[in-house]
Specification:
alpha/beta; 12 helices; elongated
């Protein structure tokens, strides 16, 4: 019975990535079933993988691996999918790293960044639920003071998970709130403090100034804070995720990624392109709205799911 949660997560993952695997899988089947493998077919495979947002370098490497020793031979779509999964796993393996909470840091401070609409506040709620289930004492700071909805959303997550929420009114100073939250979390011997932030990337200088101030103020209480800076990315934005990762890494010193909404897109391959380009640890992925639909990232499972291989 022990494998039931994993099984249900695998079902959610493969189901969530159906749109991605179906678009890739159907195109592969159409391509290889009609003719023997030649340079033109390999080139078409490469273009198909680029269109699936896997990234130019990764697509070229996968296409080369498929072509190797197979020219003028009939190959099955099963064979091609197996190579695809193997090559994708090679890219993802090095970045599939869990978020380790240092028990010596009380509280362990996680700063969460990302553009509005990426699922940032929901991700914070799901992380709070996960940490509470592990028996940790959690404090949430409603640092996206720009949006009243984000503050309310975080309060609801606090009620649902039993986490303490530190919030003030819309338009209040985010850095002051972070200072207050860290002071309270320290006083109450909390294990984890998760700080939400605004995501107005269109005004980069303002956002940068705000994030810098939040960090500066927290360091007055705890010089090592934040211990982790998580960037939440929405898979449905495709190639835009790459530029968001670049910007937020520059602005906030991102230490790890959470990718959400993989179930809402055929562009799940963007995670592969992200891993290849930025090499940032991928801690969690989300494939739905439920509290259990955020799970630690496993490279092999993801690679199989994207290739449409049953695990």
């Amino acid at each position: 019975m022990n494998d039931t949660p994993n099984q249900s997560w695998w079902q959610r993952l493969s189901g969530g990535l159906k749109r991605t695997s179906a678009s890739i899988g159907t195109a592969i089947s159409d391509l290889v079933s009609k003719r023997k493998l030649d340079a033109a077919t390999v080139e078409e495979l490469e273009e198909l993988l680029i269109r699936a947002d896997l990234g130019v370098d990764t697509a070229a490497r996968i296409a080369a691996a498929i072509g190797e020793g197979r020219y003028d031979k009939q190959v099955s779509d099963t064979e091609v999918k197996a190579i695809l999964a193997t090559e994708v796993e090679k890219v993802l393996g090095p970045v599939a790293r869990p978020l380790v909470i240092d028990a010596a840091a009380k509280p362990f401070v996680i700063l969460v960044v990302g553009v509005n609409g990426s699922g940032k506040t929901t991700t914070i709620g799901k992380l709070a639920a996960r940490f509470r289930t592990e028996g940790r004492k959690v404090v949430l700071a409603a640092g996206d003071t720009f949006r009243a909805a984000a503050i309310e959303q975080l309060k609801i997550w606090g009620q649902r998970t039993g986490a303490t929420v530190i919030a003030s009114g819309q338009g209040s100073d985010a850095a002051s709130l972070a200072f207050e939250a860290l002071t309270a979390a320290r006083r109450d011997a909390a294990d984890v403090l998760i700080v939400d932030t605004a995501g107005r990337l269109q005004n980069k200088s303002e956002l940068m100034a705000e994030l810098e101030k939040i960090v500066r103020v927290m360091k007055k209480v705890e010089p090592a804070a934040p211990h982790a800076v998580l960037l939440v990315l929405d898979a449905t934005v495709g190639q835009n995720a790459l530029s968001q990762a670049t910007e937020f890494s520059r602005i906030a010193g991102v230490t790890g990624l959470v990718m959400t909404k993989l179930d809402g897109t055929a562009r799940g391959g963007i995670l592969v392109a992200l891993a290849a380009r930025h090499k940032l640890p991928v801690h969690f992925i989300g494939v739905g709205e439920g509290v259990d639909d955020l799970s630690p990232f496993a490279a092999k499972d993801f690679a199989n799911a994207i290739a449409g291989i049953e695990s």
